[in-house]
Structure formats: structure tokens, C-alpha cells
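[09:14] KT: can someone run the structure on this one? pasting the chain below
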Amino acid sequence: ISIGLIIMMGGSFIVITNILMYGVLTKQLEKNGIETLNTLINKIENAIIMQNELELFYILDNAIKNKKEITYLLLLDKDKNIKIILPEIKVTKKFLNANIYNEMKESIKILNTEKGKIRDIAIPIMSGELGFLRCGLSEKEINKLIIQNTKISILIFFILSLLWGILSIYLIRFIYMPIKNLKKAVDEMSKGNYKIILKPWAKDEIGQLTLAFNKMAVSLQNSLETIKNKEKLRQDLIKKIILTQEEERIRIARELHDSIGQIITSLKINLKTLELNSKNKKNLKQINYLYFLINKLLKETYLIIYELRPRDLSNLGIIHTIKNYIDEYKDKFSFKINFKTNVEKKLKLKFPVEINAYRIIQEALSNIQRHSKAKNVDIEFLKEKNKLLLNIQDDGIGFNINNIYKNKKKPLGIIGMQERARILNGEFKIMSELNKGTKICIQIPLKKLKSL
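[09:31] RB: done, C-alpha cells below
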């Protein structure tokens, strides 16, 4: 909503500014035209009386050469017959009678011509006794100034909007910090450190979850409950964190789509308008580069949205979503993926089951891409009797399972997959040997899924 208001206010500002600017400039144009004609009248009065046509022609010709806004000058006698016209143009009766020849004061009329609007000014010479002097003032320079002002305003608005978009992305990422801290705190708690107290970032759902975590930590520290109770509490908390994270991802993805997607589309429309109005090759080159940046930003934004919220999951089910993910990201992976399943495409499971299975595959492929140097990956999603089987195997360099858990830098990806499997009441196994690849096996009992 706020971004929509910014766009509306920016557009309104440009329109109102142009209207006010046009009014001020046209009034100034008329004022300057009247002053110019009065100055010319003072110069040509004697020449008219002396009937010195050569001097008249010289004065009027010099004026039209020095004033870009003057498109024509007409000198008429008191009977309104043309004595001099510069430049020489065909004069029709309609054009001759387009203005009023008032012996007492100047007369201004707006004429619509092929070259745009012309402000026609007629002024009497010695109350009309010596005739009338008439000129046409072009709005071409005014239109140039307004177009230039519009271009500058749109460019400034575009830059400000782009900065706002970048700031919004940064703020959205900043939202993840409380969840990340909660995850770190849970990991510390799993080592037996129950003295961790987190400061709530806000009074929202995550803040309430942080307060709940603090109470749980104090309770564990004071009561020294059994390992079973501690594990159950930890699992409940992780389940809440992961589910809250998924809800937060959905919310952020929706806001990204509705806000930044909308403003980028609006920027492209405004940039197209700027492109159509620009005749400067240098500006067009800059506009094309801005097009490239906007399209890149739009593509990256939609990839982030897809990472945050798999759009097909709620409508088409887990199988279709996994296939779409593999197709969507196949160019980003350095290995070939073979997907095998005996599950019906239309199979619908509860949301916690589908989203956690999807995130496990997503995390596994991400780890393989970063660490394994694999060329082939086999994914199996099978239904056998009363359980679901998820197997992910690569032919990469592998690793020593025992050493990885001793490392100070914990394998958060593997731990995250383990926790998601436990949320589904499933069994998680990982097998790996150096230079023989890695295999992840997850078994999820269908009966226990009903309690989720």
C-alpha cells in the first residue's frame, strides 16, 4: 500500500508541476511578447510616418531573427491591409481575422496550427492611427522545458524507487535475524547450555516465540528435567521455529510479490514513457542499461519469492512441485538430476509433510552443489506399504561422517534436514565415504503423519 501511494504521489507531483510550470511560462511568454511589440512600435513609428519601408523591413527582420519564439510578424495599416509580413507566408482571410484589432489595447488569441499552439498578439500603433503590429509566439521552447522537467522528475523518482526497493530487500532479510538467533540458541541448548536468554526483537509472533523460548530455557536450567522431556521440549520448539519460519517466508514472499513486483513493473512503464519521449542517443543507451538492471532485479526477486514459497505446493501437490523445482533450477546445478517416484502426482499430504519434504530436497541439492562436486544425483520419493521413503544419492567426493560432527563449524544443513525429518516422526540416515559419494535415507511412517 505504501509503495502504491508513493507511485501515485510521484505521478501526481509530476502532473501538477507540469501544469503549474506551463501556466507560469505561457504568462511570461505573453508578457515578453507584449514588451517586444511595444519596443518595436517605439522604433518603427517614425519610419511609418516617413513611409520608410526599407527601415521598417530592417527593424522587423532583425527582431524576428533575434527572438526564437517569434514565428511571424505582421505590420498592417489602419485599414488592416498588410504592409509587411515576415517571414513571407501565405495569408488567408481566416488567419487575418483570427485576432481582434482593438484601437485601445493589445489583444491575445491562441491559434492551433500544424506546428502546435501559437499565441497571436496584436497591438495598435498610436491608437490604430498608424495601423497595427501583430506577432505569433511559439510554445516550442516551453514544451521542451516541460519535457525536460518530466524526464528529470521521472529519473529522480526512478532512482528513489530503486533505492526503496533495495532497502526493502535488505529489511526483509533483516527479518530473518530473530529466527536465525533462535536456531543458534536451540543448537546451544542441544549442547547442554540452558543459560541462553534472548532479547525479543518485537512484540509479534516471533517475539512471543522468543519469550516462550526464554521461559523454557529458565525452566530447564532450574528443574533439570530428564533427557526425554528436554528432547521433547526441544523438538516442539524446533517444530514451532520451522513452522513459524515457513509462515514468515510465505508472508515475506507475498509482500515481495505485491510491493516490489508492482513498483518494478511501474518503473518499467515509466521508463518506457521516458524512452519514447527521448531523442538523445546517449539517454537511450542509459535507458536500455536501466532496462537491463530492472529485468535482472525482477528476475532475482521472483527467484527469491520461489525460494521462499513454492507456489505449486498448495495446488498441485508435492510430486509436481519437486519436478517443477528441478526443472526451474536445472541450469543452476552443475549435475544431472534423475527423479524417480511411484507416488501419484495428485497425492495431497498435510502441509507440514509436504513443506518439510520439499525443504529437505532443497537443502540436500544445495549442499551437493556447494560441496560434493557430483555429476549425477538420484532422488527417489516412494510409497511402500505404510511409509514414505525419500532417498537422495550423489556420486561426489563424499566425506567422513565421524569427522564432520567433530568440526567446530557444525553442518547446519544436515542438522536442519535431521530436525525436519524428526518433525515428521521419521528416521534420518546419512551414509558417506570419501570419493564414493553420499546417500541420505529418510523413512516417514504414514500412520504417525495423521498427528501432525
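[09:33] KT: thanks! Residues 193 and 221 are 9 Å apart (CA to CA).
[09:34] RB: yep, looked fine to me
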